[in-house]
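Researcher: Let's walk through a ligand-bound prediction step by step. First, I give you the protein sequence. Second, the SMILES string for zinc ion. Third, you return the three-dimensional complex as structure tokens. Ready?
Model: Ready.
Researcher: Here are steps one and two:
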Amino acid sequence: MKKYFGLVLLIGMVVFGWQGVFAKQEPILPEEEGVYSVHGRPDLKLRIFVYKEKPETQKGKPVPSPVPICGLTDNDSLAVDNSAGWHLPAIFEYTLNPSSVPSSIISNVAEITDLSFDAWIGALDLGQVAISKNPVNTTVSRAVFDGQNIVTWGRTSGSALGVTYIWYDNTGLAVEVDTIMNKKFSWSWTPYNISNLCSVQNTYDAQNILTHEIGHWFGLDDHYTTEYQENTMYGYGSKNEVKKDTLTIGDVLGLNLIY
Ligand SMILES: [Zn+2]
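Model: Step three, the predicted complex:
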């Protein structure tokens, strides 16, 4: 068979065309921040957000820290998040992949995901966006433009806590979103409690990080300056932090400028 492979491929390409033969081969999407064109879909753009660990310094200067010290109050912020250029439709369904979730959070992952969406839904007027969970789970653990909006743990590049991919059209409507959380890190879940604003020591709180990622689903951009360090849309994530489970006034105002 091997010696006829080239011939079969050639005939296939003549009959079905190049696209037909290779249609099942999904491209590997990058994990670099940016706006990308979408092959074969000139009406769409793909935006990629990479959520990084907070570095200690940048260009020799200390990076503004969200100061995740247990017992501190969850400070508010009036810094208004910017729109990244899309909005979700009125009805949107997400699909969970529990098969690749770390064992430390597997028993809570459905609730964690639900709460991460609720933070944003609760800040909108009733009925503006309705999010539902697909009752059928997926096993897809990487970003693919396949009609499913997935939340999954999987492999991402070294320093990324999570990577979110948003395909949106030229009217500013999100048509598909995928979030890949990096399973290489230590994850935990501590339900938000105002008197104890820390997760399990030396772990990333899954709801804290995922609530930020879901902010991108709703159309919000990252922010890296000091005035945003209390916002859920602050561009760096920290260990032990759970305060991003709740939104700041600036997060809520930014959201309501989009919807
Ligand atoms: Zn982000």
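Researcher: And what stands out?
Model: Residues 8-25 have pLDDT under 50 and may be disordered. DSSP finds four helices and twelve strands in the chain.
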